[in-house]
Write a structure and sequence with these properties.
By secondary structure, the protein is an alpha+beta fold. The protein has helices at residues 18-42, 52-56, 59-62, 65-79, 91-101, 106-119, 123-128, 131-138, 145-161, 169-173, 180-191, 200-209, 219-230, 237-250, 269-272, 347-356, 365-374, 433-436, 443-450, 457-468, and strands at 4-8, 11-14, 289-297, 299-300, 303-308, 319-320, 323-330, 384-398, 401-413, 428-432. It contains 20 helices and 10 strands. The radius of gyration is 29 Å and the shape is globular. Bound molecules: iron/sulfur cluster.
């Protein structure tokens, strides 16, 4: 005999069968749909399947708003995190923190926020700073376009607003790099304007709270409309917006939300309908792109060789360890096989071999241009750089690019031809190790330089220099 586990709308359901489980789920959904139809009818929207958000903010739901406001505000006052950008409501600090927090975790942002504010304490100091200094202060946070547009927007505020931060949403939206979310955050948090915001946390909380399950591709406008309607009239909109985001960050998390301790559990439609795990419905994501790189660590006389990226495209003008893109493609690993130690072969030989390897994928334009720059005769002072075996590998993600970087040591040998014949490529430069920390360095190179397997490289270089000093002159000296 089956043990009874639930009574539902007068029907007893027992466990022990997948079919019964599915039936139970269907009944839950149909009961929820009936409840929603009642709400639509009350709001004059009966039968409008795409109007579920409107239904959520219908008259009967709107009646619950004051309760949501008081419960969430009390929870926020008691549980909000002590974050450095919450020390005051200065629009410059709010703006910098919001720009840094996009795509980046709070704990990762903390030290960057402090350093950035120390380096650029005012909007004018940011506007007057060279771009390279701003990128250097941003280095390691990734998504460098944010740093560039911060500086551009600071210059625009100085030029068009006499250095005073604009308060209106439209004026904020006209600034470089400021979209609806950031405009809403600055206007509501710094100026307490009645402006909504929707980020990933708010979207998740609202989707669950009101059991919104419309087409995720068209849900943005609906969420913004609901967020605007939800704004309190009696209390601070800035605090309300922050409270919603904080609930999403600490309680209504993407996985394993803490519904048992949630201040809004009595009002939560997804909890009532047992649909927390299925909401919000995921948006279709673009496929990941696998990228295989070879990164070359060259140390000579205690200095590291870096190259500057092209002045357009991704991470423009930033410094990186010399890098070759071997292959890229959607889905599986681009090279079609794991990379192996390659012994004493040049970058050109290595790349040629890999591009001919069975299963090798398309090579990008960037690949051939990088190879040109990394040809042995094009290194600084025309010195011949011989790649050594793989020291290790590093994985790195930039938006949808899944990068595997195979890191190789390299040996700098004397040039066999004159410097005049093979002028150094202008994008290469040697740096002391401690000077690299102050450069605008790509996140991948920073990660590689921090890797344990690279820590032995300077010691190996010292050993090599000692053993060859008598027979070989300084590779960095001019011929
Ligand atoms: S009850 Fe659960 S699902 Fe609903 S808002 Fe709270 S944490 Fe999110």
């Amino acid at each position: 005999m089956t043990e009874t586990i639930e009574r539902f709308d007068g029907v007893t359901i027992g466990e022990g069968s997948v079919e019964v489980g599915a039936r139970l789920a269907r009944m839950r959904r149909s009961a929820a749909a009936a409840r929603q139809r009642k709400l639509f009818a009350a709001a004059g929207n009966a039968g409008d399947a795409d109007a579920r958000v409107t239904g959520a903010s219908s008259a009967s739901c709107r009646a619950a708003f004051p309760k949501l406001h008081s419960k969430l505000s009390a929870w926020f006052a008691a549980h909000k995190r002590d974050l450095p950008w919450r020390a005051d409501r200065d629009p410059y600090r709010v703006w910098i923190s919001e720009a840094m927090l996009q795509q980046t975790r709070v704990d990762a942002v903390r030290p960057y926020f402090a350093r950035f504010l120390e380096r650029f304490p005012t909007l004018r100091s940011l506007a007057e700073a060279p771009e390279a200094d701003v990128l250097a202060a941003w280095s390691g946070l990734g998504y460098y376009r944010r740093a560039r547009t911060l500086r551009q927007a600071a210059r625009a505020i100085v030029a068009d607003h006499d250095g005073v931060f604009p308060r209106e949403r439209e004026s904020l939206l006209a600034l470089p790099g400021i979209g609806p979310y950031t405009a809403g955050a600055i206007a509501s948090i710094a100026f307490d304007a009645r402006e909504p915001l929707v980020d990933g946390n708010v979207a998740r909380v609202l989707s669950r709270l009101f059991a919104l399950d419309g087409d995720p591709r068209s849900s943005d406008a609906q969420l913004w409309s609901l967020a605007r309607e939800l704004l309190p009239t009696e209390s601070s909109c800035g605090d309300w917006n922050q409270a919603l985001m904080e609930l999403g960050a600490l309680v209504c998390t993407p996985r394993e939300p803490r519904c048992g301790t949630c201040p809004l559990r009595a009002e939560c439609r997804a909890l009532e309908e047992d649909r927390v795990d299925e909401l919000p419905r995921p948006k279709p994501r673009p496929s990941a792109i696998a990228v295989d790189l070879v990164v070359i660590a060259v140390v000579a006389d205690g200095r590291w060789l870096l190259e500057r990226r092209p002045s357009s495209g991704r991470m423009a003008d930033m410094w990186q360890l010399p890098t070759i893109e071997i292959a890229s493609g959607v889905g599986e690993r681009a090279g079609g096989r794991e990379m192996q130690a390659d012994g004493e072969r040049t970058a050109s030989e290595l790349s040629l071999e890999r591009s001919n390897a069975p299963g090798a994928r398309e090579r990008s334009d960037l690949d051939s241009s990088a190879m040109g720059r990394l040809h042995p005769t094009r290194w600084p002072s025309g010195f011949d750089v011989r790649m050594g075996p793989e020291l290790g590998s590093v994985r790195h993600t930039i938006t949808r690019h899944r990068i595997r970087a195979s890191v190789h040591g390299a040996e700098v040998r004397r040039a066999t031809r004159s410097k005049q014949e093979h002028a150094p490529h202008p994008s290469f430069e040697w740096f002391e190790r401690r000077a690299i920390d102050d450069l605008a360095l790509t996140g991948l190179s920073r990660k590689v330089l921090r890797s344990q397997f690279l820590a032995i490289l300077p010691a190996l270089e010292d050993l090599r220099a000692t053993t060859t000093r008598s027979s070989q002159s300084n590779p960095l000296a001019n011929d």
